[in-house]
């Protein structure tokens, strides 16, 4: 591989924040082990991981392509790869579409229901990029995009849908919408100036942060509901308690008068939520199998 291609790949991975796949992937793995009541086959697990990576790559690449003009006008994002001239828009779109095709291919190799629902998932994943131009529900559409992960993984293993993955997906949706509200506060002035429909731009930073707290309370309640749905034991609920502590910490870090630590709250704290839920679920299933 040439140095030029290596550099372009590195820039691409940085642009789509590939390392933040850890936001959704642990929830996909949680859905998979719950559906299998243990470890799925290695082939199924590999396809779930591949589908998750391809879905996120498609979504993030498409978002950067669709938002290139906005990113160029926003001081916070003007140094991203496309506005900075490091990557060309047609290349980024090609990566997005190629990843989408691979995602559908992975779904087809899993089962029929996964294949038929994969275009629906792509509508949510790619359509999110345009929602902030016409609705304040954009934060919830992003939440839905991540909430697809446990539902899709469950379908991949079992080929059906029950209350457990739906509740887990709803928990992911409101958790994501909550932390996206925090992140969107950084762009309050820009969103107001551009007429974008972010919730902070519509109701102000203080109220947006309050709504974020409410959503995170709902997320914890929904994770508890998911645990009750699949008959979780003590270890799972200890994990949910740990998630509650993480979310309280996040809201202590950020307040309307000091947004300087948003990146710590957004990236560091939230990166642990999915991993804690997955670890608690895996431990709980292991204890039951003994």
Task: Briefly characterize the structure.
The chain has 290 residues and is mainly α. Helices cover 78% and strands 0% of the residues. The chain is globular, with a radius of gyration of 19 Å.
Keywords:
290 residues; mainly alpha; Tetracycline Repressor, domain 2; 0% strand
SSE map:
Layout: H1 3-15, H2 25-36, H3 42-66, H4 68-73, H5 89-110, H6 112-131, H7 138-158, H8 163-184, H9 188-194, H10 199-203, H11 205-229, H12 234-253, H13 262-289
Could you please describe the fold and organization of this structure?
There is one protein chain. By secondary structure, this protein is mainly α. The protein has a single domain (15-289), classed as Tetracycline Repressor, domain 2. It is 78% helix and 0% strand. The chain has helices at 3-15, 25-36, 42-66, 68-73, 89-110, 112-131, 138-158, 163-184, 188-194, 199-203, 205-229, 234-253, 262-289. The protein is globular and about 55 Å long. The model has no long low-confidence stretch (mean pLDDT 92).
């Amino acid at each position: 591989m040439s140095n030029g291609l290596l550099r372009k790949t590195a820039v691409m991975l940085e642009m789509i924040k590939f390392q933040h796949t850890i936001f959704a992937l642990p929830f996909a793995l949680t859905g998979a082990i719950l559906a299998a009541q243990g470890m799925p086959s290695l082939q199924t697990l590999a396809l779930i991981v591949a589908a998750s990576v391809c879905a996120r790559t498609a979504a993030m690449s498409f978002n950067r392509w669709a938002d290139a003009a906005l990113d160029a006008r926003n001081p916070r994002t003007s140094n991203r790869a496309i506005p900075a001239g490091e990557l060309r828009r047609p290349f980024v779109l090609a990566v997005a579409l190629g990843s989408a095709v691979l995602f559908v291919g992975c779904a087809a190799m899993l089962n029929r229901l996964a294949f038929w629902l994969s275009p629906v998932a792509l509508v949510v994943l790619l359509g999110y990029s345009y929602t902030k131009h016409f609705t304040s529900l954009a934060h919830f559409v992003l939440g839905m995009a991540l909430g697809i992960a446990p539902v899709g993984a469950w379908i991949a293993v079992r080929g059906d849908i029950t209350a457990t993955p739906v509740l887990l997906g709803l928990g992911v949706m409101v958790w994501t919408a909550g932390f996206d509200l925090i992140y969107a506060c950084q762009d309050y002035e820009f969103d107001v100036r551009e007429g974008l429909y972010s919730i902070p731009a519509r109701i102000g930073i203080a109220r947006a942060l309050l709504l974020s707290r409410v959503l995170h309370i709902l997320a914890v309640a929904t994770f508890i509901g998911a645990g009750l749905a699949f008959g979780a034991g003590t270890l799972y609920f200890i994990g949910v308690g740990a998630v509650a502590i993480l979310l309280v910490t996040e809201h202590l870090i950020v307040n309307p008068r000091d947004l300087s630590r948003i990146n710590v709250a957004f990236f560091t704290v939230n990166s642990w939520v999915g991993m804690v839920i997955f670890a608690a679920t895996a431990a709980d299933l292991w204890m039951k199998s003994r």
